[in-house]
Design a protein that fits this description.
This protein is 40% helix and 25% strand.
């Protein structure tokens, strides 16, 4: 039976969300030639919708790699979502996205996360992190 890997894109800017999602979908890893896994992309523009799905357990039954924007509306930051993901699925990998390098200095990840500056290279970097995550898992 194939193992499901949930790929979460949590970005409130529709344009950035689409760019990152499309880059991830173009990854050759979405075509698993070995039959070991199936990637399931979940894209969220509304962070509250994502929080509800995580709390329901719908997304946390499988391996997770999450691409999380730091600055979101309604007083929600990426830290809120990261903390919730870590509590529900401690084996998840987080890629924090922000246009500010100050955020990178405030959030130090061990081996379970990365920081990406939101610029023209961000979608390609996200795709590389996804491929690395899959290579490490399978």
């Amino acid at each position: 039976m194939k193992k499901i890997v949930n790929v979460l894109v949590i970005e409130d800017n529709r344009y950035c969300n689409n760019l990152i999602s499309k880059a991830l979908l173009q990854s050759v890893l979405f075509t698993d030639r070995k039959g070991k896994y199936q990637l399931s992309l979940h894209s969220f523009i509304d962070p509250m919708e994502c929080i509800r799905k995580i709390k329901s357990g719908e997304l946390t039954d499988n391996d997770i790699i999450a691409f999380v924007d730091y600055y979101m509306g309604n007083g929600i930051t990426g830290t809120s979502i990261i903390d919730l993901l870590k509590k529900r699925c401690n084996d998840s990998m987080i890629v924090l996205l922000s246009p500010s390098k100050v955020v990178a200095e405030e959030h130090v990840f061990d081996n379970d996360g990365y920081f990406v500056i939101k610029d023209i290279f961000a979608p390609a970097l996200c795709r590389l992190y996804l491929e690395q995550f899959i290579d490490n898992k399978f």
